[in-house]
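name: query_chain
kind: protein
chains: 1
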Amino acid sequence: MTKPILIANDKGFAQSAVKQLGLYAVCTIMGLAVLMYLLSLAAGNTGGGSGISGINVDDNSITITLGQEPPQLDSGRATDAASSSVLAHAMEGLITYDQNNQLVPGVAERWEIREDGATFWIRDDAFWNDSRPVTAHDFVFAWERVVDPITASEYAFILYPIKNAEKINQGELPKETLGVHALSDQILEVEFEQPTPYFDKLVAFFTYYPIREDFFGSTNGRYGADADMLLYNGPYMVTEWVHGSSMLWEKNPYYWSEEKGFLDKIIVSYITTDVNTKINLFKDGQIADTSLVAPMLPQAMEQRWQIDRVMDGTVFFLEFNHREERITSNLNFRKAMSLAQDPNELVYKVLKEAAYLPAQSLFPVWVQGVSEQFRKEYPPREHKIDVLKAREYLELARQELGLDEFPPIVFLTGDTPISLLASEYYQQLYLENLGLEIRIDAQIFKQRLAKMTSGEFDVVMAGWAPDYFDALTFGDLFASWNLNNRGRYSNEEMDKMIRIAQSELDPLIRMDAMGAIQSIIEEDVVLIPMYERGVSFVVDPRLKGLIRRIVGADVDYNYAYIDVSED
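structure:
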């Protein structure tokens, strides 16, 4: 039976996703249900066309693709979805997520969170892939390294709830003063800087993964750069990595749980963003699953494939460069760009992706507030396109900047089809509505990240996926100390509200602070919301247990297995 609205292969996860997205989101995408119902009728048999595989029963293996090359697999320095996807299969933290997105024991068999700190008890059957045990010392080393300014971890801020973490990261204290202690090999004690009731959600994130000090030292600065430059404690190990081309993940014989890692091999034979290539590989039976874009749907229908959709939790936006030397640091210029566009037109007339929603805020529809969805309790400002008003703001900006005319605006973007299509739309839109020349700087994934970090852009097409199930995963993105704040936006009131959201125990006061953060973003035009991403995808019917997640790896194969009864 086709499941038309959200999730494909796991009923429990579908129920969880519906709960997370909430009634508002479900109602918003009810049109998808109608479309998918029509697709299923047109396709008739949704069990998959003949010859669909990507499955090797004899080897108990599957073949998949990755959309991007991971820049590296150092959990202490990783920032991107590609690295996260691999790390989610090869590594494990103290706490992890089960099939239904519930927090469950990982390396820690149990834990206790208090107002002043937390204690984690490490299981005695957790091992690295060289057979040595994972200990509390491995977490102490990893976390001290993250906050050490020498590491330059862009995710160091996510450890700031730990005592002295921020001061260490700012160079004010030595890393050894971090409030984390190995009381023994099995007991990890954490001191908080301020109460952090959501700390269990944080430690499931990859920046909190363990690293063993002796192995790290043996890599001579190349930790995570190649398959043999990493120790693994997750269900799978990366045993081969041909950069830019392929990977091989093999079952980790030392992984503690029998409830994950059912496949013997996961073969990443292709690393490509080309959707035409991927759908042809799936059609030819060379890969086990693939995502689809709108132009691919007719072909998928012809093949009688079951097409499923899910909102993946990510919001995309145009992020401005707020550095003083950039034209985009001018508020009136940003207001002009905001008023001259309409995300509804982008989604419904340009991208035409049925699984996408026009974005209204940095906070997506699924984010929870006090008792219901955040955006119900704190509605974002209604946006209406107003070209005449936009031109007035643009003229004010020209006068304030002392310009005779505006130079070309550098628009940094990725090289994926969706990114290029959106970029070309904005290029034409801003030329017609504001007379601005947009110079598109399309870069491969790794180079785009580098340019974002160094600030080589006026506007960057960016996206943010949640790191954990809490509104703060979006709310602290534009903190002045957050290095993922690529445009270096800085606002004292914003920082104040973020501090409240980080430490306040009263849910209402916390969410009031989140609402204030949303208002500041709107008032200061920190960004222009674009869309909330959904994914259409197809899966070989013999592959069961595949999970599409809002938090964590976009596609999770840790619970996947082959069911030959579908042959």
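note: The first helix runs from residue 11 to 28.
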